[in-house]
Design brief:
Length: 621
């Protein structure tokens, strides 16, 4: 989620006050020297991000089960741009006010995109214990019922919303809104939330005053106001939760699942170079601290869990001999399993930043951060009492809207129905991938007429309104072009390769102006400053602005899709990799179609649910 920029003075002062003396609090078995690990574990988890730590927690609840997590990055040191909500996303290259890239980020960039004027887009990914939950904008929301029901429609029994929902709540530790913010018409349904999980979800203690104007603008535009969007009805406007610890108003990450246990070991600073197989059975993991250094290995007696994320999971699979046989052979890699879907079906949400100014003197505003004195006063308020704007992010209010809310759905449906899906995929795409995409394309086309399925989100704040594409028709690819595990994956997102996506964003850009021109926002004199109504007026100008400015929302998925094998799937509905034994994938790469939501709350549920499958196998096999 894009945040407004704090001025440089505020950021430096914040760093000085917070960066020292706050080491990671994990007290369990931390390993930095590979010689200290056991020769064999029951389970080896590749990746210590969101899903990897959830699975590690649940498996290690059995004291007789040994678990090793291998993570390429370190533990974080609770730097301010990580812990303080207002500074969240500061270490993501395209967002925030922090350093552009860091030791906690793989610092990847996709290849140049022809539909973006050959622009390359930075593609951040967590290289740290906690993964993306350490870097993200802290938004904690779920999609609508339909977003998950279609997973089952694609051939995944047990992944409909009603079946999946209990696992999403299992991860959550929800705190209701406090009395001082409940007056903002914030309500909740306790049945939609969990209270015993390890990731906190709560509302911040501070609400930007303009949020009242945004709420009124939604009512003025007849957008449904949803009291609690976490129960499967998320097509409308609502207050959003944050992954926020209410005890000290700091970021809550998946590190909360890293409960100290003697049977749970965490090896940091090592990259998994490949999965080892014997006769199609995963027997261990090879790893190394870096290129040119010794490669070590560890054996596994039960399963390898691959949780390296949507960008690195396909890379590790291909390096291990799982992927398209012809492609792997061309690189000299011995084929373990011919699985063309590896790295295909890449999807991402896209954002489009549009800037604005608000009358500063009517209320506290994020625009006030241009005043260094005020900024430092607010920082001191956070330090002393954990109150004020530093307890939240750049906004409090979202709108996730169906297409019919902001455009003529009939025109889109006609265009989508006339498309031949294969024409928008790469020319060398395997027939199974084409079949899978055709099935997805049909569902996407059907949803264009739905009033309960969001097509775009609108991130609403004092200094910006940001349309975000939620249901992309475009599909990309992640692959390797080297046998070196230390070379980054080749990321070809193929943004806007299907023209329906840019049409959606054009409509979203126009609707952002409609919101801005509502009486409720004109009451606080909201004026567009970027690109400016005098600069961008025609559809052609809007489209050019989109191509020059569209960016990633960092919700990468689909590259090891949970789909039937004949539809280009990589894992089955229990997340087992097709054609081999002892290997599962548990991360965002398994998501066959993105939900209209920020991603973390969904992936927590995926990780919780797969633990049931692993438990069942352990119990009865």
């Amino acid at each position: 989620m894009r945040q407004f920029s704090l001025n440089k003075l505020t950021f430096l002062v914040t760093c000085f006050r917070f960066v020292y003396g706050r080491p990671s609090s994990y007290l369990g078995k931390r390993i930095t020297n590979s010689s200290d690990i056991l020769n064999s574990y029951d389970y080896v988890i590749v990746g210590g991000g969101l899903s990897g730590l959830v699975v590690a927690n649940r498996l290690s609840e059995d004291a007789g089960t040994t678990v090793l997590v291998i993570e390429a990055g370190p533990f974080d040191e609770n730097e301010p741009w990580i812990t303080i909500p207002l500074l969240s996303s500061g270490n993501i290259p395209s967002l925030g006010s922090g350093p552009r890239g860091s030791k906690y980020d793989w610092n990847l960039t996709g290849i140049s995109q022809p539909e973006l004027g050959n622009r390359s887009v930075k593609t951040p990914a967590g290289k740290v214990i906690g993964g993306g939950t350490v870097l993200n904008g802290e938004v904690f929301n779920r999609g609508s019922k339909n977003d998950y029901d279609r997973w089952e429609e694609l051939g995944n029994p047990g992944w409909d919303f009603d079946s999946f929902f209990p696992y999403m709540t299992k991860a959550e530790n929800f705190t209701p809104p406090s009395a001082e913010i409940a007056v903002w018409d914030i309500e909740y349904n306790p049945q939609y939330h969990g209270e015993k999980g390890h990731v906190h979800s709560s509302y911040p203690r501070f609400i930007w005053p303009s949020s009242e104007n945004f709420l009124e603008s939604m009512r003025e535009l007849e957008i449904p106001y949803i009291k609690d969007s976490m129960g499967g009805d998320a097509a409308g406007a609502f207050w959003f939760l944050q992954s926020l610890n209410p005890d000290d108003e700091s970021r809550s990450t998946s590190q909360g699942f890293l409960v100290p246990r003697s049977n749970l070991h965490v090896l940091t600073g090592n990259i998994a170079t490949k999965i080892l197989f014997d006769a199609g059975v995963a027997t261990g993991v090879e790893f190394s601290e870096g290129e040119g250094l010794e490669r070590n290995s560890v054996s596994v007696s039960k399963e390898v869990i691959l949780s390296a994320g949507a960008l690195h999971t396909p890379q590790i699979l291909q390096l291990s001999g799982i992927g398209d046989a012809g492609f792997l052979s061309s690189l000299g890699i011995d084929v373990v399993e011919d699985l063309p879907g590896v790295g295909e079906n890449y999807q991402d949400h896209l954002l489009l930043f549009t800037g604005q100014a608000v009358r500063v003197n009517v209320a506290v505003s994020s625009a006030n951060f241009t005043n260094a004195t005020w900024s430092n006063e607010m920082l001191e308020l956070y330090e002393t009492s954990r109150e004020g704007p530093f307890t939240t992010v750049g906004g409090n209010f979202f709108a996730f809207l169906p297409l019919s809310t902001f455009s003529n759905a009939t025109t889109f449906i006609s265009e989508a129905s006339a498309q031949e899906p294969a024409q928008f995929l790469l020319s060398n795409t395997d027939p199974s991938i084409i079949s899978g995409y055709s099935a997805q394309h049909a569902l996407l086309t059907k949803e264009l007429s739905s009033n309960s399925a969001a097509n775009l989100e609108f991130i609403l704040g004092d200094t910006s309104i940001i349309p975000g594409l939620q249901k992309p028709f475009s599909r990309g690819r992640v692959s390797i072009n080297s046998t070196s595990p230390f070379a980054g994956p080749v990321i070809n997102p193929r943004y806007l390769s299907n023209p329906l996506d840019i049409s959606s964003l054009v409509a979203g850009f126009k609707f952002a102006r409609t919101i801005r021109n509502s009486s409720a926002l004109q009451d606080i004199d909201v004026v567009e400053t970027y690109p400016g109504t005098a600069v961008v007026q025609t559809d052609d100008q809007i489209e050019e602005f989109i191509r020059e400015g569209v960016d990633t929302l960092h919700h990468h998925g689909g590259t090891a899709s949970m789909l039937p094998r004949e539809l280009g799937g990589v894992v089955d509905s229990s997340l087992r990799v097709y054609g081999v034994k002892g290997l599962r994938v548990v991360d965002a790469s398994i998501v066959p179609m993105l939900p209209a939501a920020h991603f973390q709350a969904t992936i927590y549920g995926v990780a919780e649910k797969v633990c049931l499958f692993i438990w069942y196998k352990r119990r009865f096999n």
